[in-house]
């Protein structure tokens, strides 16, 4: 379990730190996802329009993204944040729910 790290904060996966996996093994933990989701949910989003590929889907979609303050190269697009939120909410072991924007 210690080998799986969040690409956005570098924290290791534990039973208490639920994660969602993207393409090629990229991961975002529940804590980073909560921040990203809250920042990207409002219309218009408070985050800048894409500047490089999303760490989770590897696409540069030209849409708002959240960039990790801890790891400059890590960013998640709005689409991936929404999809990851659905995945994490459906996991009964995660006990995670979307933050209010």
Summarize the structure.
With 101 residues, this protein is of the alpha+beta class. The chain has 2 helices and 4 strands.
The count of domains is 1
Radius of gyration: 12 Å
* H/E series: EEHEEH
Structural class: alpha+beta
Strand content: 5-15%
Main sheet attributes: strand count, strand direction, barrel closure: 2 strands, antiparallel
How many DSSP helices? 2
Average pLDDT number: 88
Number of strands: 4
| Major beta sheet, strand line-up | 1-2
- Measured distance between first and last alpha carbons: 31 Å
Shape: globular
Q: In which range does the helix fraction lie?
A: 10-25%
Poorly predicted regions: none
Features:
two-stranded antiparallel ribbon, 2 helices, single chain, alpha+beta, 101 residues
Describe this entry's structure for a reader.
This protein has about 100 residues and is of the alpha+beta class. The protein has one domain (about 20-90). It has two helices and four strands. The strands form two sheets. It has a two-stranded antiparallel ribbon. Helix 1 crosses helix 2 (about 80-90). The longest helix has 13 residues, at about 80-90. The N and C termini lie far apart (about 30 Å).
Structural topology:
Layout: E1 19-21, E2 27-29, H1 30-40, E3 65-67, E4 75-77, H2 78-90
Antiparallel strand pairs: 1-2, 3-4
Helix pairs in contact: 1-2
């Amino acid at each position: 379990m210690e080998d799986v790290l969040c690409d956005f904060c570098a924290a290791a996966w534990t039973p208490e730190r639920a994660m969602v996996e993207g393409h090629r093994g990229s991961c975002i933990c529940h804590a980073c996802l909560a921040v990203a989701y809250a920042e990207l949910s409002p219309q218009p989003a408070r985050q800048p329009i894409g500047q490089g590929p999303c760490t989770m889907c590897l696409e540069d979609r030209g849409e708002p993204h959240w960039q990790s303050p801890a790891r400059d190269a890590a960013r998640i697009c709005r689409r991936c944040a929404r999809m990851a939120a659905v995945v994490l909410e459906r996991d009964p072991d995660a006990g995670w729910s979307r933050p209010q924007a």
